Amino acid sequence: MTKLFQNYKRAAIEFVKAKDNYLFDQEGKAYLDFSSGIGVTNLGFHPTVQAALLKQAQDIWHTPNLYENYLQEEVASKLIGDRDYLAFFANSGAEANEAAIKLARKATGKQGIISFVQSFHGRTYGAMSATGQDKIKTGFGDGVPHFSYAIYNDLDSVKDLVTSDTAAVMLELVQGESGVRPADPAFITALSAFCQENGILFIVDEVQTGMGRTGKLYAFEHYGIEPDIVTLAKGLGNGVPVGAMLGKAKFGGAFSYGSHGSTFGGNKLVMAAASSVLDVMLAEDFLPQVLEKGQYLQTALQKALAENAKVTDIRGLGCMIGIETTENLTDLVIQAREQGLIVLTAGSNVIRLLPPLTLTKEKIDEGVAILTDIFD
């Protein structure tokens, strides 16, 4: 008899060991991981990250934010580069999005936040209220007020919702949870310009798209924009719980002493992991190779599945790919797992692929072969 709430639908399997891009169950069976723990272990189970965690654990793994923390400064510098941002560290994507919502409201003195239908920003009350999916909110009563929802890739629908109290527009550049739907570049260019012209902050949720997932450190780099606020989590710690909110430095006064905080946010253990992740990702040629491998994977899938009547679309950006299908998603996930491949779902009809960025082309071919087989 379980002692756990049944809010997860768990497969009858437990992974007890991992190495590189493989997971191993209790029986020792190996599984090629095309899920990265829902876009978290973006580097696979990388020895550099493991070494950083072990080294830090030998020294000290937690101090609260009452004291200096050089690792936070180190990670912030690597995340920001030459951009004019400041960083705040939290424990998850939802917490990073909560921080973004609070910063936008306090910096502007306004309350309205426009997000998008079918978006996903988290399950805490503010992040859930920003999420444009009713199924996430059912049964939890009233959400946080002053949120409204535009149509993705439709600028007019945004303009229709703007009022004198609009503080920010918040969106994902690829809507992940609802079906891996990339934003149209022309829409993002026009939306960014509209926000700037009207004094509306532009928040980009990079919790799933950031940290190299799309072939660049941030997905917004594909679109030639620089958001006012950016949120990160998932791949930032490669499996260690950490989130970050980056905001333009000019908003620094809005997060003055006592305005926001986190007991665990940015502790030394998670910062050591994040710093090592960034060292790998920012190494010369790493991200260009990720972009190339993402294109290779999408091309291989198009070639293998283009004539399959069960597949209605293949879309994505970098190594974030959705296969839209008429087949039962649960059956497909089980069949893939039986053949040693771990995949995810998104929305009601999409198989979602978030493979490790360290995957070789040979392993990509191996995964595509299994996917071809299960769709056949």
Automatic annotation (TrEMBL):
Record keyword Nucleotide-binding present: no
PTM annotation (N6-(pyridoxal phosphate)lysine): residues: 234
Matches recorded under Pfam families: Aminotran_3
InterPro entries assigned: AcOrn/SuccOrn_fam, Aminotrans_3, Aminotrans_3_PPA_site, Class-III_PLP-dep_AT, PyrdxlP-dep_Trfase, PyrdxlP-dep_Trfase_major, PyrdxlP-dep_Trfase_small
Record has NADP as a keyword: no
Pathway listed: Amino-acid biosynthesis; L-arginine biosynthesis; N(2)-acetyl-L-ornithine from L-glutamate: step 4/4
Enzymatic reactions: N(2)-acetyl-L-ornithine + 2-oxoglutarate = N-acetyl-L-glutamate 5-semialdehyde + L-glutamate
Cofactor dependence: pyridoxal 5'-phosphate
Residues the record lists as binding pyridoxal 5'-phosphate: 93-94, 120, 205-208, 263
Family matches, as Gene3D superfamilies: Aspartate Aminotransferase, domain 1, Type I PLP-dependent aspartate aminotransferase-like (Major domain)
SUPFAM superfamilies xref list: PLP-dependent transferases
GO biological process: L-arginine biosynthetic process
Protein localization: Cytoplasm
EC number(s) from the headed UniProt entry: 2.6.1.11
Key words of the record: Amino-acid biosynthesis, Aminotransferase, Arginine biosynthesis, Cytoplasm, Pyridoxal phosphate, Transferase
GO molecular function, one term: identical protein binding
Binding annotation for N(2)-acetyl-L-ornithine: 123, 262
Cofactor binding note of this UniProt entry: Binds 1 pyridoxal phosphate per subunit.
GO cellular component terms, semicolon-separated: cytoplasm
Extra facts: May also have succinyldiaminopimelate aminotransferase activity, thus carrying out the corresponding step in lysine biosynthesis.
Similarity comment: Belongs to the class-III pyridoxal-phosphate-dependent aminotransferase family. ArgD subfamily.
Subunit structure: Homodimer.
Name assigned to this protein: Acetylornithine aminotransferase
Source organism per UniProt: Streptococcus alactolyticus
